[in-house]
Amino acid sequence: MSSKTKIIVLHMKEIIYTAIFAALGILLIILLVVMFRPGGKKQPADAHAEKQYTPGIYTSALTLNNTNLEVEVSVDESRINSIRFSNLDESIATMFPLIQPAIEDIAEQIYKTQSLENITLSEQSPYTSQVILDAIAETVEKAAVD
Hints:
CATH topology of one domain: Sufe protein. Chain: A
Low-confidence stretches: 45-49
Radius of gyration: 28 Å
Shape: elongated
Distance between the termini: 96 Å
CATH class of one domain: Alpha Beta
Mean pLDDT: 85
């Protein structure tokens, strides 16, 4: 009777590394399955049928220090696509240095929510931000479907 006993020596560091890489691999597979599964976000059928805006580019005037600016809003049937000043020149940007960051901040919030409600105004220029928001609201109102 000869028994051949085999002794396996495992280093604890190798076991820990193997367990960590296995856990990361499983986590990556789960993440990929969740992200790329078919039929992720489904919108109701009536959401596409509901037409909120008449597609196009709409403008409205904004007066700052006897200078007219035009707020330009581009919309399609259901989304606000872009908001910008169409005639912002260097002299106005120099006189009102916070006007461009204010409209960019407001536009980013509107893109995310697709709504003009609950917009957080800039603490640096709350009055200018409110004037810009009012001009955007007037422009979006022109685009709204009756």
